[in-house]
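BUG: 3D viewer hangs when loading the predicted structure for this chain

Environment: internal workstation, default settings.
Expected: structure renders.
Actual: progress bar stalls at 90%.

Input used:
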Amino acid sequence: MKKNFKGHLIVLSAPSGTGKTSVIRRLLKTHPNMIHSVSCTTRPKRTGEVEGGDYHFIDRDTFIKKIDKGEFAEWAEVHNRFYGTPRAPLEKALEEGKDVILDLDVQGGMKVKGLFGDKAITIFLLPPSVEELERRLSTRGTDSAEERQIRLENARHELAMKDAYDYQILNKDLEQACLEIEKILASH
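Structure tokens produced before the viewer hung:
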């Protein structure tokens, strides 16, 4: 990516259940110039999720057509579903000087890092332990037992990729994790 963007691109990756959504919500409240890039997904909408706010929920055929047209900055198949970051709104926001935070799995995080290079600030959010991650996934009640097992298997792969990120933050305490991310953002 050769463009000179005015805004910062922040990539936040972590296994499901680590607290990415909570961290992002907190950062958006404290950074009025920051926006959350809304990804597309082929997974079903969960109770309480909002179309265009949480995700753009599209069917598999539409997603594949968007891949073929090059409309994603990155995309991946995760947990047997497709997820992707629309390229046009991402680039527009960065050109306008907005800071954009992306909530991506490790596949997407590495694709964005490869595409944007040092323009991307990559942060890996770590769970306190695998046992705590299992507990969080179980108590949030959004996934079937089979889906939780897939997420836990993927978590082991994702944790092995943590060293590929610029920064690693332990999310044992939400407030402390957000303070550490604030320090990283201030240094850029």
